[in-house]
Amino acid sequence: MTKKIIYIAANDSISSKKERANVICDGKNDAQIINEAIQSFTQKGGLVFLFAGTYIILKVKDTHGGIIIDKSNVTVMGEGDATKLLLQKYQDCNAIQIKGVKNVRINNLFIDGNREYQGVKNGEIKDEIEEDDSHFRSFSFNLSGIKADKYSGDHHFPQNVIVSNCTIQNCKALCVMLRGKNMIVENNHLGEARADVVEILNGPGIIRGNIVVISSKTLRTHTALSTDLANFVSITDNKVYVKEGATLHLGFRTWHHSFFHSIKRNVLIVEKNAHVNAVVDSRGLFTSIEDNSFVNYNIEPVLLSINGLNNVSGNSLTNIKIGIRNSHPEYSEKWKQMWRCGFLEDMMVRIKKNFFYNSNIDKGSHKNKIVEGENVWLNVK
Predict the structure, then answer these.
(1) Which residues contact 348 (CB under 8 A, 6 or more apart)?
(2) Residue 137's CB: how many other CB atoms inside 10 A?
(3) What is the CATH number of domain 50-116+139-378?
């Protein structure tokens, strides 16, 4: 049976769109209209189509979201950047909250998180919150553009969530945070955020084909594209640009105690007078970092940090320093027991077939065995 489709127009949509709409928003609390449409769906789900226009998003009382998707098989779709979801001041919530459901798609929307006015403490407007600010920590993950997670106290995480072809910017915490199974973030245009731009937890998941631009000279973004407590995540074919004067702590990250990730065919460019601590921080094991292009236009090299049992091959590195972290003893003990062998006490890393342009390997004091070969070195003073 064909899924139900509800067409919604904004208060400022053109007249021809309003004529086609099932519902017309009043420009006061448009999230309520959208939520009512979602609640009208049966378990078969449906499509909410938002015509071009600006939709006012307010927090739903006693929740962490503006638009709440708590039914499976729901798609919310717009007309690209012309469909604008504007989170209003002082809402302290996620623009879109997905709770414990399956088969959800968010597509072709523009989301503005109104970062400056979220997570405000004692009426003080601050774009940058100190690391030890407990108020910010308590709100932090619920100040995002799109967040998917389980219900509080429940064990059922969302499954099969796709965020695609959206523009998401100006978010306080994260642009996209998806926790569950089969999470996909693809082909989006994303701006900086206070924490991570995109983060997938649990896994498996895919972060693919996104463009991230870090341009703020006052806000430090922690990580562009990342995993946290997730296994089997593929981060491929993304482009990250760190503009002059901007600060990004990490480009791509995999979390410790995680396994089997792929970081492939990405581009990260660090412009002059921009600051990046590491283009990659690979803390997990069995991670492949392949066929990427990392370009740093500053004098000081930028770190590419890897762990044991990582494979670094086929990359083009410009003014990059590969660093190998000392493996945590828990890794060795855990994997020795699993594989019943002792080779992980000195876990191997493979660094082959890379192009090093004014770049190097900092072998440091780690115990890992390095397998090298067929690397090309070009150093120009």
Answers:
(1) 308, 309, 368, 369, 370, 371
(2) 12
(3) 2.160.20.10
Segments of 141-195 assigned E as strands: 146-149, 159-164, 167-169, 176-186, 189-190
Q: Is 260 exposed, middle or buried (0-12, 13-18, 19+ CB in 10 A)?
A: middle
- The distance in angstroms from the start CA to the end CA of the chain is 67
Cβ neighbours for 232, distance < 8 A, ≥ 6 positions apart:
203, 204, 205, 259, 260, 261
Q: How do residues 247-260 score in pLDDT, each as one tens digit?
A: 999 999 999 878 99
Q: How far is CA 355 from CA 56, 276, 279, 366, in A?
A: 49, 21, 16, 23
Tokens standing for 140?
Answer: 């932090």
- Work out the number of other CB atoms within 10 angstroms of the CB of residue 346: 13
- DSSP letter at 188? -
Is residue 66 within 8 A of residue 58, CB to CB? The reply is: yes
Element of type H or E holding 236:
strand 233-236
Give the integer Cα–Cα distance in Å for 259 and 371.
20
Cα separation, 277 vs 68, in Å, equals: 36
In this structure, what are the phi and psi dihedrals at residue 142, rounded to the nearest 5 degrees?
Answer: -110, 30
**Whole-number Å distance between alpha carbons of 190 and 167:** 6
What is 310-327 written as a DSSP string? EEEES-EEESEEEEEPPP
Sort 110 into a burial class: Cβ within 10 Å, 0-12 / 13-18 / 19+.
buried
The answer to whether 310 and 322 have CB atoms below 8 angstroms apart is no
Closest to 49 (Cα-Cα) out of 80, 86, 27 = 80
pLDDT in tens, 259-308: 999 999 999 999 999 999 999 999 988 999 999 999 999 999 999 999 88
38 in Cβ contact with 72 (< 8 Å): no
Phi first, then psi: give them for residue 89, nearest 5 degrees: -65, 145
The pTM for the full model equals 0.91
Beta strands at 211-214 and 189-190: parallel, antiparallel or unpaired = parallel
Task: Supply φ then ψ for residue 379, to 5 degrees.
Answer: -115, 125
- The values of phi and psi at residue 182, to 5°, are 60, 55
Look up residue 33 and give its amino acid: I
Residues pairing with 104 in the sheet: 74, 161
